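pasting for the record
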Amino acid sequence: MVTMSNDAIRVCIKRQEFMDDPCLLQRLYLHHKGFTQLKALFLESNSLTAIENLDNLKHLEELHLEKNKIEKIENLQHLTCLKYLNLSQNEISKIEGLESLTCLETLIISENEISMTEFVKQIAVIPQLRKLDLSMNKINCNPESILCILGDCKSLRVLSLQGNPFVSSNKMPHYRSLIISHSKKLRQLDGRRICSEERRRCNAWGEVVLNGGTFDQANEADRQELLKIRLERSKKNASRRSSLSQSSICSSSDRSKGSIGSSVLEGVKRTFGIIESRTSSSEISNSSWSRRDLVMELDDEAEDWQNCISWNKVSDSSPRGVV
């Protein structure tokens, strides 16, 4: 055990780039009453040997006690709002004192001294427990007992058991299939996500085992379920391809209909002289002026024609040679 000397403090300062003066780290004042509203407390790596003096932190939701020397889980009954508890890398040999933590969702208790399933039974009394990390302990027991305990954890979603003797040895063959089939709502096991296809196969496999069948029969049920999954997938892909082809045919027919309709409309316009022409403003003004000039010329010609008619009448009524 390292003593808290000035040299040790300087080494920590140099490694972690903390304050320069070791004297500033020798006294910590926490006498203000405002800490009763604390929601997160980090006490890792402090060589703590017991959990104590947390009774007034009734609003605490997150507690970090990893990397200490705690041997027993105790004095947590007043932390009724606690949701996250990390007790990894301690010296705990039994899970206890958690029955009052009705809001606890995450329990990390990896790398401890837990060896028997009797010491794990209390996790089943935590109603909201969603994540449990029991990896790197010394659990070496009958597989049926641990399966029964996990089956009682109805809200469990994430589980880690790797590093325990019963997992690495031959005590629990088909370990992953057994755990998944017993934990119906589990989504992740030992860091690996459980997909919907694996869930179906493990459920089919576990149903045979639970009904007294052999592992060979369970493997056959797994194989049949895999064939069903592949058949469903091929049907789904075929329907998807057919829908895509139909959509492409409909889009091409719409385009052809649109082109035919536009040509028919253009023919009708040409027949009735309704032709849309996009001309500029200068062209419009020039066409209007030419139209005006034409009207004026026609008026002049009409006036000249009237004059000619009147002149002929006058010449007919007058004697020849007299104008």
